[in-house]
Each structure stands twice: as structure tokens, then as C-alpha cells.
Automatic annotation (TrEMBL):
HAMAP family tied to this protein: LPS_assembly_LapA (MF_01948)
Domain Lipopolysaccharide assembly protein A: 23-85
Compartment(s) where it occurs, according to its Swiss-Prot or TrEMBL record: Cell inner membrane
Species per Swiss-Prot/TrEMBL record: Alginatibacterium sediminis
Gene label: lapA
InterPro entries: LapA, LapA_dom
Protein's recorded name: Probable lipopolysaccharide assembly protein A
Entry function: Involved in the assembly of lipopolysaccharide (LPS).
Length: 95
């Protein structure tokens, strides 16, 4: 059910994007640092959207890898502490 709802939402968003692109056929001037180019507004909007998605994806991936590294570091620390606890418990039993 969840995947159907997500698919419907994506289809509606895609249709809206096509409708917006069809309405925005005007040419706009884009000034780069070293050049200038005339683009259709719909292509410029699509390019900015894709760039935003890529930046968001890279940010999320960086956060995920950072959390994954921290989790593995903490797991190693816990396993070392468990070994230390077991050694201390064994020493107390011998005494």
C-alpha cells in the first residue's frame, strides 16, 4: 500500500513538472563565471532541481557514512568493555 501511494505521488509530481515545463518556454540569460548562455526556463529549473537533489543526496550519504563509522567504533568499544568485564568477573570468582 505504501509503495502504491508513493508511486502515485511521484506520477503526480512528474505530471506537474511536465506542465510547468510546457508553460515556461521563455529564454533566460544565464551568466556563468566565464560565459553566458541563453536557456529555456524549464531546462534551467530542471537543472537546478537535479543539482539540489544531488547536493541533498551527497549530504545524506555523508551523514550516513559518518553515523555508520561512529556505530562501528562504538561496537568495538562495547566488545572491549565486555571482555574487560568478563575478566574482572572471573578474577572475583577466583578470589
Amino acid at each position: 500500500m505504501k509503495t502504491i501511494v508513493i508511486a502515485i505521488i511521484l506520477i503526480v509530481m512528474f505530471i506537474l513538472a511536465i506542465a510547468l515545463g510546457a508553460q515556461n518556454e521563455q529564454l533566460v540569460s544565464v551568466n556563468y563565471l566565464v560565459a553566458q548562455q541563453e536557456l529555456r526556463l524549464s531546462w534551467l529549473m530542471a537543472g537546478c532541481f537535479i543539482a539540489g537533489v544531488l547536493v541533498a543526496f551527497m549530504s545524506i550519504a555523508l551523514y550516513y557514512f559518518k553515523q555508520s563509522f561512529e556505530r562501528s567504533k562504538l561496537k568495538r568499544k562495547v566488545s572491549k568493555q565486555q571482555v574487560t568485564i568478563e575478566k574482572l568477573q572471573n578474577q572475583n570468582l577466583k578470589v
